[in-house]
Design a protein that fits this description.
The protein is mainly beta. The protein has a single domain, classed as Neuraminidase. The chain has one helix and 26 strands. It has one helix spanning about 10-15, and strands at about 35-45, 45-50, 70-75, 90-95, 105-110, 110, 115, 120-125, 130-135, 145-150, 155-160, 165, 165-170, 170-175, 180-185, 190-195, 205, 215-220, 225-235, 245-250, 255-260, 275-280, 285-295, 295-300, 310-320, 320-325. The strands form eight sheets. Strands 5-4-3-26 form a four-stranded antiparallel beta sheet, with no helix packed on it. The protein is globular, with a radius of gyration of 18 Å. The relative contact order is 0.19.
């Protein structure tokens, strides 16, 4: 991920005219390139089709997916959907620069030379060479699975089924916690937060106190280095009045610490599919909570609702349809 807001026509038009900066030699990515036409991609030497039409969205090679400096890996799908994710959407890994909003490169997530449809979450595996874990939802072409992805090429291995209580489950927005070496995720389309020691076998951590589906999950460390969990519901107006996006802060064991909201830039709900990240890197730019969305709007909020903070569009706000983030 992962926020998009219902905005006035004037604001939307003004944002859409802003270009994205790129620190790569490859062409910049056009944020408004979804149409009903198709373009052929070369993925692991096989052919497939995508709803992307900009030629610069082709696989650009292993030297481009690098995720350096302010960049995070991001999960991009070839269309806009809420949760549960719609089927049939091609899945990509991209780099998004949290300081400029620029998307600099892209690799199709594939298994056996075929693009995987409707991946629902990604996270960085902590040890070894740069590797991404990805999970798939109920409507994926490989449903309810854990994939191990080479971020340079997108080539993936089907690790196995994601299971809870002996039954396969669909997950979204998987994240790895460095403090306890556990994986956390949202059960797709619900307000349930799951936890796992290996990203395959999952147990229920807690049910969030919201009638809305959860859409994003991330971790935050305080000044003392204590790490906690944040989740966000794409809708909810319990704390910020007309500005939607309720958030809940938990201990890693599932104890509720506090409730808050992501204060929208304009009146109206945060759109239903988000990618949530906490990004505080003094060597780069302090962003605190960063939110992306399926509608292609990137913003950050340092104070949330309680501090009266209004999110700031990052680099004009326009990105690809982003569903999750993974730390570099």
């Amino acid at each position: 991920m992962k926020t998009s807001f219902y905005r006035t026509s004037a604001l939307f038009l003004s944002l859409s005219t802003l270009g994205l900066l790129s620190c790569e030699k490859s062409e910049s990515l056009n944020p408004n390139s979804f149409t009903n036409q198709t373009t052929t991609f070369d993925v692991a030497k096989s052919q497939t089709t995508s709803h992307f039409v900009n030629e610069s969205l082709q696989n650009v090679g292993s030297d481009k997916i690098i995720a350096v400096a302010c960049e995070n890996y991001s999960l991009v799908l070839s269309g806009i959907t809420g949760t549960p994710h719609a089927g049939g959407l091609d899945s990509y890994l991209a780099n998004v620069d949290m300081s400029t909003g620029a998307t600099t490169a892209m690799s199709a997530i594939s298994v056996g030379g075929v693009i995987v449809k409707s991946v629902t979450g990604i996270t960085k595996i902590p040890a070894g060479a740069p590797t991404i874990y990805a999970v798939t939802g109920q409507n994926s072409s490989i449903p309810r699975r854990l994939l191990r992805v080479n971020p340079a090429t997108g080539v993936s291995v089907n690790v196995g089924a994601t299971i809870s209580g002996g039954a396969s489950i669909a997950l979204q927005d998987i994240e790895h916690c460095t403090t306890n070496n556990r994986y956390y995720a949202i059960m797709e389309g619900t307000n349930r937060i799951m936890v796992s020691p290996d990203a395959l076998n999952w147990t229920l951590l807690v049910v969030a106190p919201t009638n809305y589906r959860l859409n994003g999950l991330t971790f935050q460390k305080n000044a003392a280095g204590v790490e906690t969990l944040w989740v966000i519901a794409g809708q909810g107006n319990t704390l910020c009045g007309v500005n939607f996006g309720d958030m809940y802060n938990y201990t890693l064991a599932g104890g509720l610490i506090r409730s808050n909201s992501y204060n929208a830039a304009t009146a109206g709900p945060v759109t239903p599919e988000l990618g949530l990240d906490y990004y505080q890197n003094t060597a780069c730019v302090v962003r605190n909570f960063v939110v992306g969305s399926a509608s292609g709007f990137l913003s950050n909020n340092t104070n949330l609702c309680s501090g009266g903070g209004i999110p700031t569009p990052i680099g004009g706000g326009i990105i690809k349809a982003t569903y999750d983030f993974a730390k570099r």
